[in-house]
Each structure stands twice: as structure tokens, then as C-alpha cells.
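Quick one: structure for this chain?
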Amino acid sequence: MTFTSLDLYLRSKKGATYDYPFDEKVRVYRVMDKMFALTTEEEPLEVNLKCDPLYALELRTLYEGIRGGYHMNKKHWNTVTANLDVEDAFLKELIDHSYDLIVEKLTKKQKEMLERS
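Got it. Here's what it folds into:
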């Protein structure tokens, strides 16, 4: 996966936006101002994604390219290295999982706003 294809998929999520709150390199993707992914254009291509805590631990044992979230709460975040042993289709599933975890926690009002967007 390239940065461009990763970026396109992340931005395709309903209501997704991005900004650079930390520096000019780290791009943070949000839904309703809640972070669901972080990445940079640097090689190797890596993305931090929110993950169910038990699933996160399981994934780390199964994939060399998945480890505890860099500079994140390692209980809830994984860093996924693209193009190692994580297939593009599975990376998209992990992005969907991260996005869905955030959307689940939105307030009723925020969910309504997201649906209208």
C-alpha cells in the first residue's frame, strides 16, 4: 500500500477529516473531532489505529507488522506497518475497526450529525 492509497481510504470514511496537531509530518484522521488514525508519508509506511484491547494483543502475536501503538496508549492502539506481513485488504479491515470503535462512542447528537453529513 502506498501513502496515497492509504490516505484515500482513510478520507473515504464518512465524516473523516485530517489535520496536523503535533507537527507538519504527523497527519491525524478524525471523525467528529475524535482521532481514529495517525500516519506520516515517511517510509516504512505506518499507521496508528485504535483497536479493541483483546484483539490488539492477539494481532500483535500473529503479525510482525503490528505492535503496540507508538506514542499511544498501547492497550487501545496498534501501530501497523504496511507492506510487511499485513495485506492491504486486512489493513483496510483494521481501519474500519478503528473507525467503527470511534463512531460507537459518539453521542447520539454526534451520530445524528454524522449521518446528515
